[in-house]
UniProtKB/TrEMBL annotation:
Pfam family, one: CNNM
Chief localization: membrane
Organism: Alicycliphilus denitrificans (strain DSM 14773 / CIP 107495 / K601)
Entry's Gene Ontology cellular component terms: plasma membrane
Subcellular location: Cell inner membrane
InterPro entries, alphabetized: CBS_dom (IPR000644), CBS_dom_sf (IPR046342), CNNM (IPR002550), FAD-bd_PCMH-like_sf (IPR036318), FAD-bd_PCMH_sub2 (IPR016169), Ion_transp-like_CBS (IPR044751), Transptr-assoc_dom (IPR005170)
CDD domains membership: CBS_pair_CorC_HlyC_assoc
The name this protein goes by in its record: Polyamine export protein
Domain CBS: from-to ranges: 284-344
Membrane topology designation: Multi-pass membrane protein
Function: Involved in cadaverine and putrescine tolerance in stationary phase. May facilitate the efflux of both cadaverine and putrescine from the cytoplasm, reducing potentially toxic levels under certain stress conditions.
Superkingdom to which the source organism belongs: Bacteria
Length: 444
């Protein structure tokens, strides 16, 4: 065999190895969502790739058989072709034995380098860069190889399955997409500039609906504007003007005996037409949705959808009204900073290291604002005020403070045992070290 023929064979083997490398990495790196989109657009090859991804055992068996066979043949051909030429070159300066040894080593390094560069590194990087496009291109030839070498594939595949079964290892990958997977993709998209930071936050808020309690989005009992069933016309008109809301609970005596609710637009229509307003009038007061305070926001949304309402009264286990929630409250939780007037902000950032926060702010919003994952005793409270009560083990007073997680929480204003304002400051490194030392001493 001449040098030209040998080099031509080596080139063919490198091309074959590159094909199998591309086939391997492109299938493994292809995103199912992207392949499903291509299939829905009419690309039949993408559907075939999806099918192979569900049962990839035979596919990867062909790849490994091909790669190993080509590597062995490449070593045989390369060593026999190039060693004499390198040996003759080194023989001009070295003894024959040493020249042949160096010729073999040089031949091995040359052939190995060609395979590493052109049959492994470059094809795999190309496959990682465009996995779906390359996967649909190689699926046809790969399925042909799977058909031609089916007996060999069956033998190796069944043997590998048996060994994995004996070891207790899984033979199929888990294709389930979790919320963590989606959030990680959104975070990567935000870093790449595909998603705006606010868009990423909206998506994260949607997934938090299952974990956030309805009490984190409700209007507190003390802030509810309500009517009594026997309120006179003048009082109703005065309250509408003083406290303009879209919905008002109607009670029998006090707030804990809600009998229904009245829509503001119904009241406005009567007021504009100079008609008398009486909550005893049949049809004006609607049946109200009552939900327990232990529901998540996602569960409240399901209740809204089921009864076709957008307003609910929240009660605790003692049937005491603790607040009200509307569909707009839930949507405001999802949209975050994209909605809501500035004068209703519960978290105001004063500078790079300090925040002024309302005591009723949901603890999840506090964590987002401070950029921390968790505070101590998570689950024992739902608001910043609740966190301070748990940490102090009493009702906080003005100037009380708690230092935890590198932050100082200081109570600025208390109104009738209600925590109005809290100053949160990021501690310096020295203060954090002192805090950690104190915590360590308390544990010991």
């Amino acid at each position: 065999m001449t040098l030209t023929e040998s080099l031509f064979i080596i080139g063919l083997l490198i091309a074959a190895s590159a094909f199998f490398s591309v086939a391997e990495i492109s299938l493994a790196a292809s995103r199912r969502l992207r392949l499903r989109q291509m299939a829905d657009e009419g690309d039949a090859r993408a559907a075939r790739v999806l099918h192979v991804q569900e049962q990839p055992g035979d596919y990867f068996t062909v790849v490994q058989v091909g790669l190993n066979a080509v590597a062995i043949l490449g070593g045989i051909v390369g060593e026999g072709t190039l060693s004499p030429y390198f040996g003759a070159l080194f023989g001009l300066w070295l003894p024959e034995g040493r020249a042949q040894a160096l010729g073999f080593l040089a031949s091995f390094l040359a052939v190995t380098s060609l395979f590493i560069l052109f049959a492994d590194l470059c094809p795999k990087r190309l496959g990682m860069a465009n996995p779906e496009r390359l996967a649909v291109r190689v699926i046809g030839p790969m399925q042909l190889c799977m058909t031609l070498f089916k007996p060999v594939i069956w033998l190796y595949s069944r043997t590998a399955d048996m060994l994995l079964a004996l070891s207790g290892l899984p033979v199929q990958r888990d294709e389930r997409v979790t919320s963590d997977d989606i959030l990680a993709m959104m975070e990567a998209g935000a870093r790449a500039g595909v998603l705006a930071a606010q868009e990423q936050q909206v998506i994260a808020n949607v997934f938090e609906l299952d974990s956030r309690s309805v009490t984190s989005a409700m209007t507190l009992r003390e802030r509810i504007a309500f009517f009594r069933r026997d309120d006179p016309d003048e009082l109703i008109r005065a309250r509408i003007a003083a406290e303009p809301f879209s919905t008002y609970p109607v009670c029998d005596g006090d707030i804990d005996h809600v009998v229904g609710y009245v829509d503001a637009k119904d009241l406005f229509q009567r007021a504009l037409k100079n008609q008398p307003i009486s909550l005893a009038e049949e049809g004006l007061v609607r049946k109200v949705l009552i939900v327990p305070d232990r529901l998540s926001l996602a569960e409240v949304l399901a209740h809204f959808r089921q009864v076709h309402e957008d307003f609910a009264v929240i009660v605790n286990e003692y049937s005491r009204v603790v607040g009200v929630v509307t569909l707009n409250d839930v949507m405001s939780t999802v949209m975050g900073d994209l909605v809501g007037p500035a004068d209703e902000e519960q978290i105001v950032r004063r500078d790079e290291n300090s925040w002024l926060i309302d005591g009723t702010t949901p603890i999840e919003d506090v964590l987002h604002a401070l950029g921390i994952d968790e505070l101590p005793h998570a689950g024992d409270y739902e608001t910043l005020a609740g966190f301070l009560m748990v940490m102090l083990r009493r009702v906080p007073r003005r100037t009380d403070s708690v230092s935890v997680g590198g932050y100082l929480f200081e109570v600025l204003d208390v109104d009738s045992y209600r925590i109005d304002q809290v100053m949160v400051s990021r501690l310096g490194r020295a203060a954090q070290a002192g805090e950690e030392a104190q915590a360590s001493a308390e544990r010991s």
